Amino acid sequence: MTFIIVLSCLLLNFYWRRDRMLPVDSWFDSWQGFLRSRQHSLPAFLSDWPGTLPLLAVVMPLIPIGLLLWLASGQFMGLLSFGLHLLLVMYCLPRVNLDALIEDYLERWNRGNFEAAYLHSENLAPGIFDESFDDYARMHAQFTRFVLVCSFRRVLAILFWYILLGPLGSLFYLLVQQTVRSGVLLETEKAQWLAHRLLALLEWLPVRMVSMAFALAGDFVAGFNKLRTRLLEPLDVELGLDLLEECAQKSMGSAEMHDKDSEFALRAAADLSALRALLQRTQMVWVAVLALIVLVV
């Protein structure tokens, strides 16, 4: 069933181009606010530890979902379990079709309408850019990094944890991401350190697996050599994302870009198109590897 779920989710994620914003997307923020308001009612030994509320926020929602999965196991010839697995994994996937987002961005970028590319992308996926600016080289770099990070965190790493631990593994990883991003329960430096450490631990292996897949889907020698030089780096969220970005650049064979008017614009568009193609090939590599595992095991 795992192979069918992964393949189905990748196909739905690619072809589902409509808005995916769900009415239940805000539940986790409300849940964190509820826990924060009840912090005073916890025993002292729990409320004093900075990791208590973040851990409760992430773990407690998994309990009823795990119970539901257990009750559905084997019912209706496995169709109920299949449906629940598919819904949970699809919930973890990004709320925007990344392929369509890149297509729309490039269509405006190639016309030289950089401001329209900025406004359209920010409207579809708020938070891509950290500010409004006229430095289009920086704008393009931020968009490219968003595509790469979102593809990793909301597609490839989600599927990695699903393959390894099932839908609860994917959901746990997603909730850790949301806890770190919102920061609602991370009021102290110790709490922030613990949350970032946990996220870095969850991403350490997937980053390297995806980097290897980049190499297999592109320039293997260049991509693998870059991965080999940074393979055993310590746990750090930003170091992991930097490794991912460098391996992607090496695997797709992109040259250094120079900020020179139209020359830069053409090269930037070519590199983004190359990244788009690399991500698509990487997903095919994952499906092929998973198929081989299923056949062998």
The total count of strands amounts to: 0
Radius of gyration: 20 Å
What is the percentage of strand-forming residues? under 5%
What is the H-and-E element order?
A: HHHHHHHHHHHHHH
Low-confidence stretches: 256-261
- Anisotropy-based shape: globular
Q: Into which percent range does the helicity of residues fall?
A: over 70%
Q: Structural class per helix/strand content?
A: mainly alpha
How many domains would you count in the coordinates? Answer: 1
Continuous helix count: 14
Largest sheet: none
Ends distance: 13 Å
- What is the overall pLDDT average? 89
Topology:
Blueprint (H helix, E strand, L loop, with lengths): L1 H14 L11 H11 L6 H4 L4 H8 L2 H11 L6 H14 L5 H13 L3 H11 L11 H30 L1 H16 L6 H29 L2 H10 L7 H15 L9 H36 L1
What can you tell me about this protein's structure?
With 297 residues, this protein is mainly alpha-helical. The protein has one domain (2-14, 25-296). Helix content is 75%, strand content 0%. It is built from 14 helices and no strands. The protein has helices at residues 2-15, 27-37, 44-47, 52-59, 62-72, 79-92, 98-110, 114-124, 136-165, 167-182, 189-217, 220-229, 237-251, 261-296. The longest helix is centred in the C-terminal third of the chain and has 36 residues, at 261-296. The chain is globular and about 60 Å long. Residues 256-261 have low confidence and may be disordered.
